[in-house]
Amino acid sequence: MNVPLTYRKRVITQSDLSLIVKVIDEYRSEGRSAISRRLCEVWGWRQANGQLKDGVCRGLLLQLERNQLITLPSRIIDNNNNSQRRRITPATFDFQPTPLTSALSDLTPIELRQVRRSPEEKLFNTLIQQYHYLGYSQPVGEHLKYLAYAKGRVIAGFAFSSAPYAIDHRDTFIGWSVEARECNRHLLAYNTRFLILPWVRVPHLASHLLGRISRTISEDWQKIYNHPLLWLETFIDTERFTGTCYKAANWTFLGLTSGRGKYNKTQKQLTSIKAMYGYPLSRDFRTRLCHG
User: Fold this and answer.
1) Is the pLDDT assigned to residue 86 strictly greater than 50?
2) Distance from C-alpha of 55 to C-alpha of 20, rounded to nearest angstrom
3) Listed residue (147, 250, 251) closest to 197, CA to CA
4) What confidence tier does 84 reach under pLDDT thresholds 50, 70, 90?
């Protein structure tokens, strides 16, 4: 039987399918996570920091099941299920939704906390879900989350995740080859969320925070994922924002999207036009990204 599937640029062969079925039979009682981890070990699927690509493998298994090529065991819901825990455990932190209007100089020093894998991560998730126009969605792959505090009060939050695979504007600006992108894309991060809490009115705060994060995020990423960052990027919805704070923080405008969306196969505009901005974290970023 031919398996009509390519997942994350890997062609799933009949031999792969036979292995997957065998591992499912052997580890059925231990659950889906055990199955995906075992497959990652056999295939050598690891991230740049050495961790197994467990999430990627589980995505493959779900795709194979949707194609009716395998049958996975029932899900096991227990205390180790992070998504279940996120749904049933509310944030218990106290924050003050009272107006804050001042000059930036009156708030300093502003404390920037990386809250990924900390008790404050729940607070971050809650604030983004309630006050960001896109809401909260669990990032996939490597990611960090930040909260900004001024005089003990939360004033802002933002998150960075693994960068999209292929973006014409960015790839042209960097000038790297497909092979170099394949090797070095993990050195890029995408600003997925940026929220100044709606009751905070402080001129120049957003650009100040972007400047702060550019000086610390590579070191923070290194601590958790064992590699630095060389480049940051983001998309701005032009129907809502003008990108003023990114311009003020010296991010570079790279171009506009077509508005067709990620999976649209037509030439019609289905979503709002996005402006893409990028920011290098090293003067020799092109040399290091293009040549290793």
Assistant:
1) no
2) 16
3) 147
4) very low
Tokens of 92: 């218990």
Structure tokens at 207: 């650009």
Query: If phi over 0 gives left and psi between -120 and 50 gives alpha, with beta otherwise, what is residue 258?
Result: alpha
Q: How would you write 231-266 as a 3-class SS string?
A: EEEEEEECCCCCCHHHHHCCCEEEEECCCCCCCCCC
Residues 6+ apart with CB under 8 A from 150: 100, 107, 108, 110, 111
Q: How confident is the model at residue 172 (pLDDT cuts 50, 70, 90)?
A: very high
CA dihedral 118, 124, 125, 127 (to 10 degrees): 160
Domains of the chain: 6-66 (no CATH), 84-291 (3.40.630.30)
Q: Give the model's pLDDT for residue 90.
A: 47
Q: What is the pTM of this model?
A: 0.72
Q: Which amino acid is at 89?
A: T
Q: Which residue has the tokens 């400047």?
A: 211
Tell me the residue ranges of DSSP E strands in the chain. 6-7, 10-11, 100-101, 110-114, 143-150, 153-162, 188-196, 200-201, 231-237, 252-256, 274-280
Per the DSSP assignment, residues forming a β-bridge with 237 are 274
